[in-house]
Amino acid sequence: MALARVVTFEGISSDRMAEMAANIEGGEQPEGLNATEMMILHDPEAERAVAIVFFDNEDDYAAGHAILDAMPAGETPGQRTSVTKHEVAVRMKS
């Protein structure tokens, strides 16, 4: 069963989001992360973002959560306001 780590952030300007997007799109995921996909939604007016990271199974989720949770605050997009775990009930790509 696939799992998703959903994190909300506040205080993310459009400039900061553009900087993060360039770093993420041009780089590789941290060693051991094993995420299958990552998506970041940004509301520039409210300076809020939601990051969704998908994992294939519980072991990958646990390892990924530990890696992401240990990231220094300066490497995250903004101030983390919540971290939740979800089962991926439905997923459709075109």
Can you tag this structure with a few keywords?
94 residues, Alpha-Beta Plaits, four-stranded antiparallel β-sheet, 2 helices, globular
Explain what this protein looks like in three dimensions.
The protein is of the alpha+beta class and 94 residues long. It has a single domain, classed as 2-Layer Sandwich (Alpha-Beta Plaits), CATH 3.30.70. It has two helices and four strands, in the order E-H-E-E-H-E. It has helices at 14-26, 58-69; strands at residues 3-10, 37-43, 48-55, 79-87. A four-stranded antiparallel sheet has the order 2-3-1-4. Strand 2 (37-43) and strand 3 form a beta hairpin. 17% of the residues are buried.
CATH fold description:
Alpha-Beta Plaits
Mean pLDDT: 91
User: What's the tally of helices?
Assistant: 2
Major sheet: 4 strands, antiparallel
Task: Give a quick summary of the entry.
With 94 residues, the chain is α+β, with helices and mostly antiparallel strands.
